[in-house]
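User: My collaborator and I are trying to settle a disagreement about how two of our proteins should look. Neither of us wants to argue from intuition anymore, so we agreed to look at predicted structures for both before our next call. Could you fold the first one, then the second, and keep them clearly separated?

Assistant: That sounds like a sensible way to settle it. I'll keep them separate. The first protein:
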Amino acid sequence: MVTWQADFYHHRRQQAAGRVLWELLICDRNRSFQFEASCPQSEVNSNWVAVQLQLAGGGNLPDVIQVFRPQCLGLIEQAGRSLGINVEPTRRTFALKQWLQEKQYPTVVDKPPPAPLPENLWGEEWRFATLSAGKVVEVFTEQPIPILVMPEFLQPINLGLASTVSVPGVVIYGGRQSMRLARWLQEAR
């Protein structure tokens, strides 16, 4: 599976005429592939992004584009949809963020205040719990959970955690709202 990481943002760079310049940066996970394009703010739209994605790929488009910045997610999602590319919002765009830091561009995103969980999804009981890192994968893969997302790179062994380290978490007993709560958590990531 081919995965790109992308950012499309105005980084306070300006043209001579004083117009804001937006820059599209695309790379793969190990930065063996990098692509840059820029345009004035008046030309910013999903069609421009789609054309740039096609130019970047040269006929070989990715399966997934990862985006960490909420401000550009909508444009890249729309461009991806028109090209049949899945777009994944994630903060885990390490190669792209490293490139942005080298270019001395900010990687901080606007952080809206936390949204309260709708009351109908509160569940019947909540409690804090810990599980040893060595048991995390084993415990969850054996459970009949219909919605289970456990990315391999976040598994304790791949994070370099000793098997005896306690991993904190929250146990939610959702009762009749369990499936709705699970879907909401999956969408919220």
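The second protein, kept apart from the first:
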Amino acid sequence: MERFEGQTVVVTGGSGGMGSSHVRGYHAEGANAVIAGRDDDAGRDLAARLGQRALSVHLDVTNEDDWTALVREVEDHFGPITILVNNAGIQNPAALVEHTELRAWEHTFGVNVTGQFLGIRAVAPSMRRGGGGSIVNVASTMAHVGTAFYAPYTASKWAVRGLTKTAALELGRDNIRVNSIHPGVVSTPLIHEPTVAGQPAIADLYSPDPFAIPRLAEPSDVTRLLLFITSQDASFATGSEFVLDAGLLLGPALRPESDIAA
């Protein structure tokens, strides 16, 4: 029996770089996979390629009505939601705090924090109707440090940590686990493409050479950890933070002996 057979999984930002990897991973393990996002064409295309047990649903994570409509459509199609992956997120244009526009701050918080809050609020009753479930909020290693030029994004990911732990306390007795995952630098368009024209891509600023594991993560690395967190193998974990960063937060790794000798 596949780990997620008969379960229904909603992945926000489900047609993007990491989101599409998560959708494919759950679908391959037997889940009903819901691709939730604003890019309807990409969502429908992915659903068509996956075939049965895949559904594309339009969702702006900052819109309460969209969340209500999503829960209704998913329950009509598959029944109660079992797993929610709050994956949708955006990066702010690089700027010093004193040069950051209020609209950039509010938009970043709207997607990265309010979007996850609305998702938990909308989906928890469905999970309760189904006897429980698992929620994972995608945060970042930036939720553990300060990062110059990215105050909105960094602050939003710190806020996700508090939201995760509070929701875990409130929903635990309903058999709903809530955890967060904190990827480092993952090879996706969000990393390789400039946030705005004329600025360097984030990947240009973060060389993996000092990491203990000297490479960027692939979306599949994050997917495999996500599948574990939401499976019964992790049934004792809630309110936990799972860091997946190749040692980025640890600091520069010791170079191989041969390099030191040279």
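Some points you might bring to the call about the second protein. The chain has one domain: 8-245. Residues 8-245 form a domain with the Rossmann fold fold (CATH 3.40.50.720).
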